[in-house]
Design a protein that fits this description.
The complex is a heterodimer of chains A (271) and B (105). With 271 residues, chain A is an alpha/beta fold. In chain A, 45% of the residues lie in helices and 18% in strands. Chain B has one domain: Non-ribosomal Peptide Synthetase Peptidyl Carrier Protein, Chain A, CATH 1.10.1200.10. Chain B is built from five helices and no strands. The radius of gyration of chain B is 13 Å and the shape is globular. Classes of the chains: A alpha/beta (271), B mainly alpha (105). At the A-B interface, α1, α2 and α7 of A face α2, α3 and α4 of B. Chain B: Residues 13-91 form the Carrier domain.
């Protein structure tokens, strides 16, 4: 297990690369989602195919998640973007990177791209959106429910989840309740600084949005079309928010197509 | 390599013993040190391992067998439900198959 100490936080990092002897074509950084998620959602889905296609694949657990450190405080979006910045710095990854983010991970990736447009080669956002006031309000509502219904009345809530969604989901929910109880995450994220429309439109790299057709995230497609110079979306019918895990092959295929078209153009000297 | 570990052998019994040792290392973290581990044991229901624990297991497999066994690729080829139902026995078979394939190659 690789731990990278940024000076502020210990982050669990996993890396996969192309077969021996091959120089990676580009670096892709995969950022996972909130509460029940970890880098495992990439490790066992799209990462092996990304590496086999010639990419240097970097995955890490967000603070508080997976095998990374869990400080009591420091869970705003800006803390997460700082962590990503510090991680790339420690790994000496200086060139433009392709960023992939699932759900909240996409919001982090977008925040990084808005801070460093010149260091972002492309952005793939799975079931995700930039940090806007509407985003903060929505996440605030979800986190409020986790705090009040799950963390404060855990036995009853877990019994309900077990009965309706099975033991596996119940175990994930217990983990989420623990994270919210032990940290300030539930208060910090809704209080995060959000982006203005000008800050969003600073992102000029190609952006791909991938959505489940049955997810309410499809509503954010028009916002991105208005503000982003190079935006394209793919909607996968019959899927909801967990489209990455449910349809990994299709999602990964769309992302690889984007990355290779961009890095191919770069290699040929075309912008 | 750990000198106390037996030599790698591409047969079911030896690989099951290897995996049981790795899984006990993982479970110790949760204070569970007497779990029974056999071919029909499931990672999810019986051992209550989370997917991030399987990432750690992937690392332990690589330490033991090198690049010959690619656990991430093995799981990436499965449906989500198959991963939930994954048994130790299925992984044993995959490891034995991988070891034999590289011996033959």
């Amino acid at each position: 297990m690789a731990i990278v100490d940024t000076g502020d936080i210990r982050l669990h990092v996993q890396r996969m690369g192309p077969a021996e002897g091959r120089t990676p074509l580009a670096t892709v950084v995969l950022v996972h989602g909130l509460l029940t998620d970890s880098l495992a959602s990439y490790y066992f889905t799209v990462a092996p195919a990304f590496a086999a296609s010639g990419l240097d694949v970097v995955m890490y657990d967000l603070r508080g998640h997976g095998r990374s450190g869990r400080p009591a405080g420091g869970y705003t979006l800006d803390h997460n973007i700082d962590d990503l910045e510090a991680l790339l710095d420690r790994l000496a990854i200086t060139g433009p990177v392709h960023l992939v983010g699932n759900s909240y991970g996409g919001t982090i990736a977008f925040g990084y791209a808005a801070r460093h447009p010149e260091r972002t080669a492309s952005l793939s956002l799975i079931e995700s959106e930039p940090a806007t006031a509407a985003w903060a309000a929505k996440l605030g509502g979800i986190l409020h429910r986790v705090v009040t219904e799950l963390a404060r009345n855990e036995p009853e809530a877990i019994a309900w989840v077990t009965a309706n969604h099975g033991r596996n989901t119940a175990r994930l929910a217990r983990g989420a309740a623990r994270l919210v109880r032990e940290t300030s995450l539930g208060r910090d994220i809704p209080a995060s600084r959000v982006l203005t429309e000008d800050q969003i439109s600073v992102v000029r790299c190609p952006v791909l949005g991938v959505y489940g057709g049955d997810s309410d995230m499809v509503e954010v497609v028009p916002l991105k079309e208005t503000l982003l110079a190079d935006y394209r979306s793919v909607v996968l019918p019959g899927h909801e928010h967990s489209v990455l895990v449910e349809a990994a092959g299709t999602v990964g295929g769309h992302i690889l197509e984007l990355i290779h078209s961009v890095s191919g153009a770069r290699a040929a000297g075309v912008r | 390599m750990n000198p106390t570990e037996p030599e790698v052998r591409a047969d079911e019994e030896a690989v099951l013993a290897d995996l049981a040792r790795m899984l006990r290392t993982l479970l110790e973290e949760y204070g569970d040190d007497d779990a029974e581990i056999g071919m029909s044991t499931t990672f999810n229901r019986d051992l209550e391992l989370e997917s991030i624990d399987l990432v750690t297991l992937a690392g332990l497999l690589e330490e033991r067998y090198g690049k010959r066994v690619n656990f991430a690729e093995f799981l990436a080829g499965m449906e989500f439900d198959e991963i939930i139902e994954l048994t130790v026995g299925r992984l044993v078979e995959y490891v034995v198959w991988s070891l034999k394939a590289t011996e033959a190659g």
